[in-house]
Design a protein that fits this description.
Layout (H helix, E strand, L loop, with lengths): L1 E11 L3 H8 L19 E5 L8 E5 L6 E10 L2 E10 L3 E12 L6 E12 L1 H32 L1
Antiparallel strand pairs: 1-7, 2-3, 3-4, 4-5, 5-6, 6-7
Length: 155
């Protein structure tokens, strides 16, 4: 198994609490997630608390959207950590972290956001990851961070 880590970052002109609220509640992801538009008929199921640790989001959609589950396992003002399990189109388990760093004076006038996915891949997936998946996921992260930025700065 080969470990991998993929990150993308952006600066958002909004305080960390505003950004945190958009990441810490899966219902808010419909406003910025790069995968939300893949299947207009996607089924969504939210369980557990509305936000924070224990909040869970399950989805099932077309071939592009796939199927899986996310569960928030850590939530602090500086980070939201999500366990991510893909069931379709392939099985995988990863950890996704949103690191939130206040920037500027007054403190928190802006937020540097780093979105990181980590996990392990078997030999075949490690090769395919380097050739295809990492570029696609990186592009999705860039798109999602741009949407998160627009949404947070709109408030």
């Amino acid at each position: 198994m080969a470990d991998f880590s993929l990150s993308r970052s952006t600066r958002i002109q909004a305080d960390p609490a505003r950004v945190h609220a958009l990441v810490d509640d899966f219902r808010e992801w419909t406003k910025w997630s790069p995968w939300e538009g893949l299947d207009p008929a996607m089924r969504r199921d939210y369980t557990g608390p509305d936000h924070g640790v224990g909040s869970t989001y399950r989805w099932a959609g077309n071939k592009k959207a796939g199927e899986g589950e996310m569960r928030i396992t850590e939530s602090t003002p500086r980070a939201v950590v999500v366990d991510l399990t893909f069931l379709k189109p392939f099985k995988a388990t990863n950890v996704t972290t949103f690191a939130l760093a206040p920037v500027g004076e007054p403190a928190g006038g802006a937020t540097d956001v780093t979105w990181t996915m980590t996990g392990s891949r078997n030999a075949i997936m490690a090769v395919l990851g380097k050739l295809f998946f990492d570029k696609a996921i990186g592009s999705d992260f860039d798109k999602g961070l741009a949407s998160l930025k627009r949404e947070a700065e709109r408030a």
